[in-house]
Amino acid sequence: MADTPGSPQTPQTPLTPQTSETTSRSVGAAIELEGLTKRYPGGALPAVDNVSMDIRAGETVILVGPSGCGKSTTLKMINRLIEPTGGRIRIGGEDVTHMDPVRLRRTIGYAIQASGLFPHMTVAQNIALVPKMLRWPAARVRARVEEMLDLVGLDPGEFHGRYPRQLSGGQQQRVGVARALAADPPVLLMDEPFGAVDPITRDHLQDELIRLQRELHKTIVFVTHDFDEAIKIGDRIAVLRERSHIAQFDTPEAILTNPADDFVSGFVGAGAALKRLNLTRVRDVEITDYPTVTVDDPLQHIFNRLRSSGTNEILLLDKQGRPYKWLRRGDMMRAKGSLARAGTLVHDTVTRDATLRDALEAVLTDNTGRVAVTGRRGAYEGVVDVETLMNSVHELLEADRLEAREAQHGLEEQRAAQTHAEQEGFGGAGGLGGEAKA
Amino acid sequence: MNFWEYLGNRHQQLLTDAFQHASVVFQCMVVATVLGVLIGVATYRSEWAGNLATLTTATLLTIPALAMIGLLIPIVGLGVPPTVIALTLYGLLPIVRNAIVGLRGVDPSLVDAAKGIGMSPVARLARVELPLAWPPILTGIRVSTQMLMGIAAIAAFASGPGLGNLIFRGIASLGSKNALNQVLAGTLGIIVLALLFDAAYVLIGRLTIPRGIRG
């Protein structure tokens, strides 16, 4: 796969051995929150009440909940932008509850909504901030900036000297993530980072984040109010209700198929089966090869391929190996051999990190019944067709149904045992318990 | 003697006065800028302190210039000291007010980001808040300078330096043949100086406001 941006790929930045050592990244550190509480003076109830949570190293945990539930406050207590009034925080086993907050924050990446880039600094200056504060040598900072830009999919040569206002929202957000990761922190906190970008860009950024995380294995705590975003990105999701009380903290699959209570199922919302499609990625289904030609191929070769392929159409790739057009048999004739006029443009492609839902969407909008899968820099890697998708969906739903039935069964058994115990144990009190359950 | 002949005869004296005028305004502006920004930095975070600073400097500005200098003479004597003190005090208000408004106007999410990536309070101020507040502060400095140009003329009342001397002398000897020329030369000199300073500020703005936030 071409997905290895950690290795220095930009030929214009010769990396010295010392700097390539920095690419051997620090992986995540576990975060333990223990009875974390935030009480504001004058408030009758605490804003965050006694939250305990174990976040494993290298895990992406999503805090999701309605607005005002204290999820953001909880996040900001981890890097002590908000000082907790009670409880403790341990990162990588070290108690940081009373550590110097400035020093602590330099070891924790922080990305916020609308990127938080400083408008008076260039992209490179923004990214270099934390490494400079940590007094990295200048050459290493420079190399790191290029590396980070490359990592988040922005061409260093082009974006290096730009100011934030010269970037699109999505690009700004990428730079924001690059800045958060620049000093290679083991922990990354993200506070609704994609909240301010349009849905399409948000989708791309989510895919990028998933790709990054697969390479970096940071511990990510991510706050959002968008449950779909949560199931897409999270390894585990903490559904929070008011005062940051944890309603359920589990894998997306478990929350979708077996919500703990009405609050959680209300939050999951309708269409759980469709949402289930968000949990499976294109990489998990069969990606098939497909006959391709490139625009540089001689026309005769293209004709031969079309004839010998055994399919109705072939995929035309551009000079960079990216899907460009679908060519049908008749197309070349009608366009009198001109590639510029022949075929239909490829509308939509998906990456291996895209969800099956994205893939289904793409297949449905493209009239070819299949969608091209692309890798790094949009290069063609294969296709997924509608039959593959349908089969996968059926299998998934079947498996889920089975699982849910088992869980239901388990729950009933548990309840029966409980009722039994109550009746045995307390006699009259069993009646009360039964009433409360009804 | 018409005005042009007057200018030709007295240009040496006029240039000296103009230079002194510019010099005293410039020096007072430097002091007022440093003090004003410091006051702004010290008070912008607190609602009441910021308001108090703005109110105090605004009150100072309402004192008539002639009265202010007159009140200063018994305390610090004649000449340069009352001029410098009065000009500096008058110069404060626009700078303090704009510094406070500018610093308070910095997007809170940027301050949050600066804290979140581990900037110390001093670094946050020096690298994020002040650079972002600089355009309004510079506007304040510009307004102050224009104002001081005029007020400096009154310094001649306390035997201070500058083009005000010409105006006062002219007014004192109204009716004599050069009276009008003197007043005219003093006034026009101040206007020319003010325009030159303003041009300089435009240049300073081009040089010091980062490209990323230039409007």
From TrEMBL, chain A:
**Which PROSITE patterns did the record assign?**
ABC_TRANSPORTER_1, ABC_TRANSPORTER_2
**Which UniProt keywords are listed?**
ATP-binding, Nucleotide-binding, Repeat, Transport
GO terms of molecular function? ABC-type quaternary ammonium compound transporting activity; ATP binding; ATP hydrolysis activity
Q: Does the keyword Hydrolase apply?
A: no
Q: Name one Pfam family in it.
A: ABC_tran
Bias category Low complexity: which stretches?
A: 1-24
Q: Which residues form the ABC transporter domain?
A: 31-268
Q: Which GO terms describe its cellular component?
A: membrane
In the UniProt record, does the keyword Heme occur?
Answer: no
Q: Which family does it belong to?
A: Belongs to the ABC transporter superfamily.
| Name recorded for this polypeptide | ABC-type quaternary amine transporter
Q: Which organism is it from?
A: Streptomyces griseoloalbus
What taxonomic classification does the UniProt entry list for its organism?
Answer: Bacteria, Bacillati, Actinomycetota, Actinomycetes, Kitasatosporales
From TrEMBL, chain B:
Query: Is Phosphoprotein there in the keyword field?
Result: no
Q: Which domain of life is it from?
A: Bacteria
> Which GO BP terms apply?
glycine betaine transport; transmembrane transport
Q: Where is the ABC transmembrane type-1 domain positioned along the sequence?
A: 18-201
Give yes or no: UniProt keyword Transmembrane: yes
As for membrane topology, the entry says: Multi-pass membrane protein
As for subcellular location, the record says: Cell membrane; Membrane
Gene3D superfamilies attached to this UniProt entry: MetI-like
Query: Which residues span the membrane?
Result: 24-44, 51-73, 148-171, 183-204
- Supply the alphabetized keyword list: Membrane, Transmembrane, Transmembrane helix, Transport
Extract the Pfam families matched here.
BPD_transp_1
GO CC annotation: plasma membrane
Q: Which residues form the signal peptide?
A: none
Q: What InterPro entries does UniProt report for this protein, alphabetically?
A: ABC_transp_perm/SBD, MetI-like, MetI-like_sf
Spell out the family assignment given in the record's similarity comment. Answer: Belongs to the binding-protein-dependent transport system permease family.
Name-wise, this protein is Osmoprotectant transport system permease protein
Query: Origin organism of this chain?
Result: Streptomyces griseoloalbus
